[in-house]
Design a protein that fits this description.
Helix content: 40-55%
Oligomer: single chain
InterPro entries: ADH_Fe/GldA (IPR001670), ADH_Fe_C (IPR056798), Alcohol_dehydrogenase_Fe (IPR039697), MAR (IPR034786)
Keywords: NAD, Oxidoreductase, Plasmid
Number of helices: 13
Largest sheet: 6 strands, parallel
Strand order of the largest sheet: 1-8-5-4-2-3
GO molecular function: alcohol dehydrogenase (NAD+) activity; maleylacetate reductase activity; metal ion binding
Protein name: Maleylacetate reductase
Mean pLDDT: 96
Shape: globular
Number of strands: 8
Low-confidence stretches: none
Organism: Cupriavidus basilensis
Bound molecules: nicotinamide-adenine-dinucleotide
Number of domains: 2
Structural class: alpha/beta
Strand content: 5-15%
Distance between the termini: 29 Å
Length: 354
């Protein structure tokens, strides 16, 4: 590598990683200067929300167990109003990307700091990216004030993540790393992080599928998820994320599953135009062909491989291809309507990537 030249602006979350990190919540809350916290979780994770509340003791002001996929605006408004009524000075978001996204929606308007306790591999806790959905439209943006100040990664909290969700969430994290490796604003540090993220997840996920209670495999996957969140937060996304965003927004598809199906095909599309990224991905996957390597990994782990299987209709593919062409964005290979339509066709069928 010659003529190295880049701008690197590391983002400033404090990270506490390891088994039992949840026990550090009270101490970390005090370090942040918090006095009253609103705890967020999904309805399904109310038990976790209560455990988190108990860990905060007298500084626990209330629980809002209504986080939902893609942060619906009405839920965000309700949570913001509760935070204001309770007069809290800290949000503790315990859960996946949906719960952390709700915390970000509160922080966006109030500047209240977030402590994130991730329980999936989505990586939102390490990014300044927010998204709020009004009807069928998801508004996304970047704002440093939504970046959690402290992140507690406790692999024990991921033991309950069902195996199929662990797999798709893990491949979603791999997708963040893949696009960071060919992002136009990548740098040597983000590439190191992204390559190691793919390696950790590709090695950890098969062990989780074999035994979902394998603590060291869970730790390895969560470590990979942390790296993937850092890679995503520090770089711009390209074709893969744009396609998934379009598919998710237009057709209301599940987030991680959509990423899992599309990734091998988006990778194949870009393969010839990003040789250095492909070499890193191949090394991390220990596979000669990165796109096929991801496809084979997903198949081996029992993940969904077709958009058809996610409920997409064949007649939807043209409008997805049109939408992907609408707003130009940087991508290693120029955006070609016919080739993108072909990519979507293969993803719809669940065919191997070419
Ligand atoms: P999620 O947060 O929607 O969680 C899915 C389901 O899994 C929920 O019912 C949740 O309660 C449950 N769950 C989570 N952790 C669990 C655990 N350990 N045990 C048992 N159940 C558990 O899923 P996700 O994939 O983490 O997040 C998806 C959302 O995050 C999408 O809206 C996506 O756009 C967003 N996201 C944002 C960013 C960002 O940087 N802003 C990054 C990645 C994803």
């Amino acid at each position: 590598m010659q003529n190295i030249s880049f701008t690197y602006s590391p983002l400033g979350a404090r990270v506490v990683f390891g088994e039992g990190s949840l026990d550090r919540l009270s101490e970390e809350f005090a370090t942040l200067g918090g006095t009253r916290a609103l705890v967020l979780c999904t309805p399904e994770q109310t038990a976790l929300g209560k455990i988190v509340g108990d860990a905060l003791g007298s500084r626990f002001a209330g629980l809002f167990p209504k986080a939902a996929m893609h942060v619906p605006l009405d839920i965000a408004r309700e949570a913001r109003s509760l935070a204001s009524t309770l007069g809290v000075d800290c949000i503790v978001a315990a859960g996946g990307g949906s719960t952390i996204g709700l915390g970000k929606a509160i922080a966006l308007e109030s500047n209240i700091p977030i402590i994130a306790i991730p329980t999936t591999y989505a990586g939102s806790e390490m990014t300044p990216i927010y998204g709020i959905t009004d009807g069928n439209e998801k508004r996304t943006g970047r704002d440093p004030k939504v970046l959690p100040r402290t992140v507690l990664y406790d692999p024990a909290l991921t033991l309950s993540l069902p195996t199929p969700m662990s797999v798709t969430s893990g491949i979603n994290a791999i997708a963040h790393c893949v696009e960071a490796l060919y992002a136009e604003d990548r740098n040597p540090i983000t590439s190191l992080i992204a390559e190691e993220g793919i390696r950790s997840l590709a090695q950890g996920l098969p062990k989780v599928v074999e035994n979902s209670a394998d603590q060291s495999a869970r730790s390895q996957c969560l470590y990979g998820a942390w790296l993937s969140g850092m890679a995503l937060g520090a770089t711009s996304v390209a074709l893969h994320h744009k396609l998934c965003h379009t598919l998710g927004g237009m057709l209301n598809l599940p987030h991680a599953e959509t990423h899992t199906v599309v990734l091998p095909h988006a990778l194949a599309y870009n393969a010839g135009s990003a040789p250095e990224a492909m070499a890193r991905i191949a090394r991390a996957l220990n596979s000669k062909n990165p796109a096929l390597g991801i496809y084979d990994l997903a198949t081996q782990l029992g993940a969904p491989t077709s958009l058809r299987g996610l409920g997409v209709k064949s007649e939807d593919l043209d409008k997805v291809a049109d939408a992907a062409m609408k707003k130009p964005y940087p991508n290693p290979r120029a955006l070609e309507r016919a080739a993108i339509r072909e990519l979507l066709e293969r993803a719809w069928l669940g065919a191997a990537p070419v």
